[in-house]
Amino acid sequence: MKYSDTLKTSHGFEVIELFKDPVFTFGNLLGAEVKEGNGEYRVGIPVKGLFYLPFEIVFYTRRFASERKVSYIAYSPDLTRNRWGSLQIAYENKTLNINLEIEFPFEPISSLILKRRIKKSLKNLEEIVRIEKIKRKI
């Protein structure tokens, strides 16, 4: 799955501080549940599957961050191979650049579902960030 977007934001570069938190990032972008352990994060994305049987897309990620950029390197274990990818979010001149490239199991279905979730959350990003800044008193 590949997804790229560029968004104007009225928030300063502190918005990148929020994206350094994997719970905020994956919870808001993908509707995922995030658990920390041994320096990496387990990200579980609940999905309603065929005939509405629920299943979960799971991947593990590590975070690398600088002042104006955060990168998550992810892998999704599979029975036949590991699937690798990354999420990069950069802030520059009141603009967020978001690039996601990762292989998921059940690629055609999962890509469609996850792209819809990302687009929906990015549409409301200004409000999500505003509320989160109030919660965290940033």
Summarize the structure.
By secondary structure, this protein is an alpha+beta fold. Helix content is 31%, strand content 43%. The chain has one domain: START domain (Alpha-D-Glucose-1,6-Bisphosphate, Chain A, domain 4).
Summarize the helices and strands and which ones pair or pack.
Layout: E1 2-8, H1 15-19, H2 22-30, E2 33-37, E3 40-48, E4 54-65, E5 69-76, E6 83-92, E7 95-102, H3 107-123, H4 125-136
Antiparallel strand pairs: 1-7, 2-3, 3-4, 4-5, 5-6, 6-7
Principal-axes geometry comes out as: globular
Unreliable sequence segments: none
Write down the overall mean pLDDT: 84
Q: Nearest-angstrom radius of gyration?
A: 15 Å
Distance between the termini: 33 Å
CATH A-level architecture:
2-Layer Sandwich
Q: Classify the secondary structure makeup into a structural class.
A: alpha+beta
Whole-number count of domains:
1
Number of strands: 7
What is the helix tally? 4
Which tags fit this structure?
138 residues; alpha+beta; Alpha-D-Glucose-1,6-Bisphosphate, Chain A, domain 4; 7-stranded antiparallel sheet; 4 helices; 31% helix; globular
Detailed description of the structure:
The structure is a single chain. The chain has 138 residues and is an alpha+beta fold. The protein has one domain (2-136): START domain (Alpha-D-Glucose-1,6-Bisphosphate, Chain A, domain 4, 2-Layer Sandwich). 31% of the residues lie in helices and 43% in strands. The protein has helices at 15-19, 22-30, 107-123, 125-136; strands spanning 2-8, 33-37, 40-48, 54-65, 69-76, 83-92, 95-102. A seven-stranded antiparallel β-sheet has the order 1-7-6-5-4-3-2. β5 and β6 (83-92) form a beta hairpin. The longest helix is centred in the C-terminal third of the chain and has 17 residues, at 107-123. The protein is globular. It starts with a strand and ends with a helix.
